[in-house]
């Protein structure tokens, strides 16, 4: 146990400026998302570019692909939250149906297995299947976030649970620790958005 703490401490001291920067900027973006703030998108854009460079350096190629996806969806999400609602008003928080949610889970499993197999067979990717879980769940979560769906937080919880040990195994101890915060934040995001959704539903019913 002592050796493990020594190893973690050494890893934290060796944390690169790139890793620090990517995590701190993305931390701000995630906090803003929990607060249902449109500013989550432009801060997130900066963070994902930094993470894309970081993940390419350590050969987590599924995560690199994910960051490219984030760039495109962040630009759209920024517009959608601001002008994507009825009559180009702010987009409200809504929910997906039970059937849609089940479909997302089934699709996620299939894409994870397929993309993981591709990485395993045709690249030198590290932890291809586990990395693919992070990528696939993140894609679904991001799509739901773009449309301000409450269930986005369910998939962010999955992402964080898998990412914490994955990044620790790659000696990204600072990033792994930040993802512990992201996990807590995802639970809080679900609770916070659920309150906002219910409040809006009550106002519409009056």
Automatic annotation (TrEMBL):
<feature type="transmembrane region" description="Helical">
    <location>
        <begin position="64"/>
        <end position="81"/>
    </location>
</feature>
<feature type="transmembrane region" description="Helical">
    <location>
        <begin position="174"/>
        <end position="193"/>
    </location>
</feature>
<feature type="transmembrane region" description="Helical">
    <location>
        <begin position="6"/>
        <end position="28"/>
    </location>
</feature>
<keyword id="KW-1003">Cell membrane</keyword>
<feature type="transmembrane region" description="Helical">
    <location>
        <begin position="152"/>
        <end position="168"/>
    </location>
</feature>
<keyword id="KW-0813">Transport</keyword>
<dbReference type="GO" id="GO:0034257">
    <property type="term" value="F:nicotinamide riboside transmembrane transporter activity"/>
</dbReference>
<dbReference type="InterPro" id="IPR006419">
    <property type="entry name" value="NMN_transpt_PnuC"/>
</dbReference>
<protein>
    <submittedName>
        <fullName>Transporter</fullName>
    </submittedName>
</protein>
<comment type="similarity">
    <text>Belongs to the nicotinamide ribonucleoside (NR) uptake permease (TC 4.B.1) family.</text>
</comment>
<keyword id="KW-0812">Transmembrane</keyword>
<keyword id="KW-0472">Membrane</keyword>
<dbReference type="GO" id="GO:0005886">
    <property type="term" value="C:plasma membrane"/>
</dbReference>
<feature type="transmembrane region" description="Helical">
    <location>
        <begin position="125"/>
        <end position="145"/>
    </location>
</feature>
<keyword id="KW-1133">Transmembrane helix</keyword>
<feature type="transmembrane region" description="Helical">
    <location>
        <begin position="101"/>
        <end position="119"/>
    </location>
</feature>
<feature type="transmembrane region" description="Helical">
    <location>
        <begin position="40"/>
        <end position="58"/>
    </location>
</feature>
<dbReference type="Pfam" id="PF04973">
    <property type="entry name" value="NMN_transporter"/>
</dbReference>
């Amino acid at each position: 146990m002592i050796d493990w703490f020594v190893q973690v401490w050494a890893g934290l001291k060796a944390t690169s400026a790139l890793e620090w920067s990517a995590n701190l900027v993305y931390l701000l973006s995630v906090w803003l998302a929990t607060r249902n703030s449109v500013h989550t998108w432009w801060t997130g854009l900066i963070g994902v570019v930094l993470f894309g460079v970081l993940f390419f350096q350590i050969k987590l190629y599924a995560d690199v692909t994910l960051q490219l996806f984030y760039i495109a969806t962040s630009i759209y999400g920024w517009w959608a939250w601001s002008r994507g609602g009825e009559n180009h008003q702010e987009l409200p928080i809504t929910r997906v149906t039970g059937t849609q949610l089940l479909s997302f889970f089934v699709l996620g499993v299939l894409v994870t297995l397929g993309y993981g197999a591709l990485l395993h067979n045709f690249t030198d990717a590290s932890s291809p299947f586990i990395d693919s879980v992070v990528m696939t769940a993140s894609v679904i979560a991001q799509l739901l976030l773009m449309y301000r769906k409450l269930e986005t937080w369910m998939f962010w919880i999955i992402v964080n649970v898998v990412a914490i040990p994955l990044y620790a195994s790659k000696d990204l101890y600072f990033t792994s620790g930040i993802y512990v915060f992201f996990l807590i934040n995802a639970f809080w995001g679900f609770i916070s958005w659920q309150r906002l959704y219910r409040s809006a539903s009550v106002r519409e019913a009056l």
